[in-house]
Amino acid sequence: MKLLAQALRLHQWAKNMLLAVPLLTAHLVLDLEAWTSVIVAFFGFGFVASATYLVNDLIDLKSDRLHAQKRFRPMASGRLTVSAGMALAIVLAFLGFAISAAALPAGFIHYLGAYTALTLGYSVVLKRQLLVDVLVLAILYTMRILAGGVAVGVVVSEWLLMFSFFVFLSLAFLKRFIELKGSDGSAQLAGRGYAPIDLETMRSVGVCSGLISALVLSLYVSSTAVVQLYRAPQILWLLCPLLVYWIARIWFLADRGEVHHDPVVFALIDWRSYVVGACGLVIVLLAKFGSAGI
Fold first, then answer.
1. pLDDT band of 190, cuts 50, 70, 90
2. Of 3.30.2090.10, 1.10.357.140, 3.40.1130.10, 3.40.50.2300, which CATH number belongs to 1-156?
3. Reported pTM
């Protein structure tokens, strides 16, 4: 079971919680039917994503065996044979599309298919292209939100799309920054389009992308759209310093070498991230049910 969990990268399934974002932003928290759709979508995306991870491991088999950490992956270490890995990938992809087609709108299948094609394109060639790789990663994250909107029948707003894209773009740059900073510093990052000389530029663009997401959030709070959903929308301004704190802190820690090679994994084990999330939830609830006179 441990080998299977590693091969499927089950910890990466946490990213699929983004499918619930449209449900939450549309204030459908008490809609059981919507939650059922999100749960099905979660497993559909999870199975398909795991299938693409297995294909990616096959493509990167030689380079992974030379990598300090990746050489312990199931296929790279030889604990999972290539034939078994590919058979498992086919079964997972079939399961993902089958359960999605049986319970969700056709539009969701379209997003799932586009996600699969883009992910495979990323594994084969796009991840080696300068800047293209981080843009693709940001798009893949954002596609989960769009797919979640289709699953529950909610139109994802332009505000949410802009905010999400810049947050995920910052995290994508952060992932590459951590990889580059952890390399030997003597040559271009293996399998990527970056060299040590790019560290400063990568840091600047990544931090700016995160701060732009805070700007988008502030513009949303000051827009007329927010008044239709919240009784005390002015309270939402408190989300902005929280977001700036979280973005700036994770970049500071990455610069110190204290962040896991995957920012998502880091966030899942970082207690301060949970505190920030809890504070954000309280702020949203106060804005939703509070008094306009606050």
1. low
2. 1.10.357.140
3. 0.87
